[in-house]
Design goal:
By secondary structure, the protein is an all-alpha fold. The chain contains five helices and no strands.
């Protein structure tokens, strides 16, 4: 859960780098919360207002952590625009987000070397 909270704390930080664990744990928690809110919206029979509000609330943090994740792979955050291409763009973007960290680059030192891996 700390990965999710850390991303929300840095909701407008588009510079720097983010490890794979930070990005994918945020994505996992984001998906779970979205599904729960969608179920609540369906159960109440109302328009999906809770899900829409939540999606708008985490849009900026999601873009920021995506940009930091791409920086970690040595790419600019603008590559996130690939999701606008129907299928192939999303596949390419997922591959980019899954690749391993690069050593120190123009976006800063490698976060792998800076912070120890948490014990699960």
């Amino acid at each position: 859960m700390h990965w999710y909270v850390d991303v929300l704390k840095k909701y407008t930080v588009f510079n720097g780098r983010a490890r794979r664990a930070e990005y994918w744990m945020f994505t996992l928690f984001n998906l779970v919360i979205s599904l729960v809110l969608a179920l609540i919206d369906m159960a109440t029979g109302l328009t999906p207002i809770l899900e829409v509000i939540y999606t708008l609330a985490v849009l900026l943090p999601g873009l920021a952590v995506g940009a930091r994740r791409l920086h970690d792979t040595g790419r600019t955050g603008w590559w996130q625009l690939l999701f606008l291409l129907p299928v192939i763009g999303l596949i390419i973007l997922i591959v980019m987000l899954c690749t391993d960290s690069k050593p120190a680059n123009q976006y800063g030192p490698s976060p792998k070397e800076a912070a120890p891996t948490p014990a699960w």
